[in-house]
C-alpha cells in the first residue's frame, strides 16, 4: 500500500519534502525488513534532515560566489613540495574560523593561490559557515558604488559580519583614495571579529605597496591583517605555463639512386 496519496498534502503543507520524496521507498523497506515504527520514523526524519542540510549547503555555495568549484582534493600538492601541507590540512578543519584569525596566501602568478583559497572556503561551506569570495578590485568597487547610493554603512556592516571573507588578488592594482580607506575600514571592522583569507602576488614585505598614497593607512591595515595570521607561501612553476611542443622530426633524406646521379 502506498501511503503517499493520503499524506502528500500534509507533508507539503509542513514543508517535509524529504519525507515525501522517500516515503514510498522507506515504507516498502519497512515492510520487507519488518522494522519497528520508531525505526521507520527515524529513517524518514533522517531523509528530511539530509534534504535540508543539502539545501542549506547549496544556498551557502551559491552565496559564496566562487569562481569555480575548487576543492582541496583537486589541489596538486606535488607541484609545490615546499608548501606546508600540514598547515593546509589543519586550516581545512576550520580551527582558524573559531579563532577569527586571518589566513594570508602569497606566491607568483599561477601557483594556485586562488584555488587554495577557494578550497578552504569550500571546506568552510561544508562546515556550515557562510562565505563570500571576491577580488580586491571588485570588493572596493562595490563599496564605492554603495557610497554613491547612500548604502555604504549597510554594505560595510554586511561584509563585516560574514564569518569568512576571501579577498583574492590583493595588491594586484594600487589602492587609490577612497578605495584604500574603504579596505582599511573593512579590515578594521573584521579585526578579531571574523576570519579573512587574503591572496596576493606580492611578497609579505611588499604589501605596503598596495597603499601607495598613504603609508600610515597601510601600516594600520596590514598590522591588523598580520596579527595572529596563518601564512602560506606557494613557490613553484605556474600551472598556466604553455604546453611544450614535442620534438619535431625532419623527414629522412631520400636516397639517390646511382643511375639518377650518373
TrEMBL record:
Transmembrane ranges, per UniProt, are none
Which one of the record's GO molecular function terms can you name?
ATP binding
Q: Has UniProt tagged this entry with the keyword Cell inner membrane?
A: no
Q: Which InterPro entries match?
A: AAA+_ATPase, DNAC/IstB-like, IstB, IstB_ATP-bd, P-loop_NTPase
Q: Which SUPFAM superfamilies match?
A: P-loop containing nucleoside triphosphate hydrolases
List each copy of the AAA+ ATPase domain by range: 99-231
What are the boundaries of the region Disordered?
242-262
Question: What is one process in the GO biological process aspect for this record?
Answer: DNA replication
Keyword line: ATP-binding, Nucleotide-binding
Q: Which Pfam families match?
A: IstB_IS21
Recorded coiled-coil stretches: none
Q: What segments bear the compositional bias annotation Polar residues?
A: 246-262
Against Gene3D superfamilies, the record matches this protein to:
P-loop containing nucleotide triphosphate hydrolases
Q: Does the keyword Cytoplasm apply?
A: no
Would you identify the family this protein belongs to, as annotated? Answer: Belongs to the IS21/IS1162 putative ATP-binding protein family.
Looking up NCBIfam families in the UniProt record yields: IS21_help_AAA
Q: What is this protein called?
A: Mobile element protein
Originating species:
Piscinibacter sakaiensis (Ideonella sakaiensis)
